[in-house]
Amino acid sequence: MVGVTRSPVQSELDAEFEYGPSFPEGYRPGIGIVGCGEIVKTAHLPGYARYGQRVVGVYDIRREATEGVRERFGVETVFDELDELLSHPEIEIVDVATHPDVRPALVRQALAAGKHVLAQKPLAPDLQTARELVEEAERLGLMLAVNQNGRWAPAWRAATLLIEQGAIGDVVAVTHLYHHNYGFTLGTVFDEIEHLVLYDYSVHWFDITRCWLDGKTARSVRALEYRTPNQPAESSAPWGAWATIDYEDGSSALIRGVGCAETTRPRKLYWIHGSEGTMRGAVLGSGPVPGSESLELERDGRTTRFQLEGSWHTDGFAGAMGELVTAIAEQREPYNSARHNLLSLELTFAACRSAEDDGRPVAVQCAPSRGGDV
Predict the structure, then answer these.
(1) What is residue 53's DSSP assignment?
(2) pTM value?
(3) Residue 274 sits in which domain range?
(4) 185-235 pLDDT, tens per residue?
(5) CATH number at residue 237
(6) Which ranges in the chain belong to alpha helices (H)?
(7) Distance between CA atoms of 299 and 113, rounded to whole angstroms?
(8) Does some domain include residue 344?
(9) pLDDT confidence of 288, banded at 50, 70, 90?
(10) Predicted local confidence at residue 127, as pLDDT
(11) What residues contact residue 282 under an 8 Å CB cut-off, 6+ apart?
């Protein structure tokens, strides 16, 4: 676990808090990973290795994708067939890290094999399928969690814990601005994903926003997607997007993605305004890069700055798995349960529908759901 270092002069909070990934003592379940693409090798496996988790084996339909993972990450077995992984008696958790189109079927197979599942985000291509997966897991008495790893990005995680401490009072507004460049999607399957930016990428932002405004009822979502001026003609998916979420009590959220940024520091900035104070910070997806994760709290005319360690693409992925492992050990619903994720998905899908209808508001019907204790 990683603790916060605060400015000794400006610190006013009552207690220290731990914001890093956490795993239970005395319980180290075997993990099997389905899919071994770039994100697994740059985030899943490094994160699990850093925190001493046991990866029993991996499987990918493309055998070449698994080359070198034994040597680099201490993976015990590279399975030739999916059934071999799913039937392995020492694998308790299956990490489904594939593209969205095949994800629901693989989740169902893993559940049918009696395994708990951590599914990559977005959980499903539509809300009905997501609900069916939730019900299937609950019927079988198994845990299904979603790898909303952004919840454990250090600057986002620390902000979440401060909100729960009441550091800024009632959260009334959230603003996100992330600048990125999607040139890496050219010629890949990502460029073929419908609503790439809103659905596949911004789901992290919809998810963390619903966490920061937890317990409030979202009323409607508006969104637009657009091609940026410097976007290559051969690219299919729009690179620019924005979305707003309006709540019944007057609270609001804004997510703006600048997908054409020419920058070597693709930071993700955020502001959280509360009835008693404001937080602002930034995360950087990969790393660790010194100083890339930042957070400051302003309240009562004073500013507290937090020095954060870690990065999204290690600690975030370890944190999502750690919460599932801990929930299994404690026999409770994980904070990142699929049921808790349903509202995040509904907000995401509402944004996609709004973008298809020139930004008109789309009503939200899913009631807020709280996951297990963090």
Answers:
(1) -
(2) 0.92
(3) 150-309+338-363
(4) 888 888 888 898 999 999 999 999 999 999 999 999 999 999 999 899 998
(5) 3.30.360.10
(6) 38-39, 45-50, 69-73, 82-86, 103-112, 127-140, 154-164, 203-212, 317-330, 338-356
(7) 51
(8) yes
(9) very low
(10) 95
(11) 155, 267, 268, 269, 270, 292, 293, 294
